[in-house]
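User: Structure tokens for both sequences below?

Assistant:
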Amino acid sequence: MSESWASRLLASLERGASLQDIARSASFVSVLGKAAAVLARTGITPNMMTLLSLVPALLSGVFAAYGALGWATLFLLLSGVFDMLDGPLARSTGTVSRYGALLDSTVDRITDAAPLLGLIVLYATSGWMAVVPAFTLLAAYTVSYVRARCEGLKVQLPPLWMRRGDRMVLIAVAMLLSFLSPAFTLIGIALTGILSVLAAADALRVARNVIDARGPDTRPDLAP
């Protein structure tokens, strides 16, 4: 019974269980499209919007380092809003490019790290507590790396779970919980890290199944 339940859960997660799916709903896409059309008239480019998302992300890290977690949450979410607009803006202006996608992914890694680095600084004088955001930062990068490496190896993964938007929301919620108790923030950050590790392990499992089904590949450029 438990194995059947676990199998159904994993199958559901593989199909994609993510808060990012909300951003793909017709109504939300329509709102983003309208906002992008307004931005297009200002002359701002998608790459400028991508770089602009760095500013509130870095401010989120600074405020987190000083323990102002409410402000850190606000700027983290603002960075997420800017990040959601660069894609629709690129499509609205007909400027979709591979370099834009590369820049977006690079900036995403920085914005992922900023609030967690701030929390590491905040807890640096508290002994073991700094390990929690450090662990979550490592776990988040592991999820991103597995997916990126699979793309490089032409291994097509399903949507899966614990994508960037999910991690960002969980971190934001964890920081907001500091208003109830600082311990809740640590618990929330730790939970985000644990879920990220499980998601990375699941992605590796799925990737292995895909690779095994495809058969052996003896190309020399696949050496680790």
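Moving on to the next sequence.
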Amino acid sequence: MGLQLLFFCFSLRANWVSLFESDPTQPVSRDLSEAVLNAQSHFIPRLGWFIEGGAALGLNESTVLNITFALLLSTGSLLVIGLFSRSAAVAAWFLHLCAVKSANLMTYGVDNFATIGLFYLMFAPLPDRFALDYVRKKPPQPNHDRADVCQRVLQLHICIVYFFSGLTKSLGIGWWNGTSFWRAITSPPYDIIPAHTWAILTPALPLLGIGVLVLEIGYPVFIWLRRTRLIWFLGVIAMHVAIGLTMGLYLFAFVMIVLNFAAFGLKVFPILDKITPTKAGILQRRRQS
């Protein structure tokens, strides 16, 4: 999730101030987004809170936005190296949420899933053995019960997301006959691969669309079954890799792969339990010994 946050910052580094500054000449601006938020609730986090606080200290809008960007970049870096892990996780979630909500008219799925991942990270047992915090000070015994609860909730969350995503797609005819798949891969700015190249694969588009439906709707069932778990896991990972490479949605593909590994990586690849041991894995090794 630290890498996801860094990628998010790097992708917006050239347009951060222009994206979030107040500009009445722009059809979509932070003021409009935050006005929509105010209609929903005054308590939804937003960058406007920082700007108002900075104004009280005599700081202009651009300065506050640059400071916010530097803080977001710093929290992502701290998460990557595992320094001040808990504080960095809380700050990263709050700052990212503020940025996403202040641009909520221009956001899409990757921003929501990144916020979800950072939210779970706040409650996850930290630090792990590869974090600098682990070297800097002797950490307490890991709370395996809390780790199990966090992972179980994330597993159920991911299952619900995939099921309803697939169910929504299946209600129309577009994913069954391939037209929705065609529109997704040929509409700007996602048309990285020319349409004439996809035209060669037109007969296969309905099969690809149905394959997506099967993967997503079947996820809550087959990811739990031992015989089908690896197939479904690799199928979903391959689907997100394909989305990233063919549509340019690299951040979306990356965060979904991260969440899948966080939720089911230990079940699919038990060898990972030796790296990040869970309570279940420790009990199983004790029984075997």
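User: Anything stand out in the second?

Assistant: Residues 144-170 form the longest helix (27 residues).
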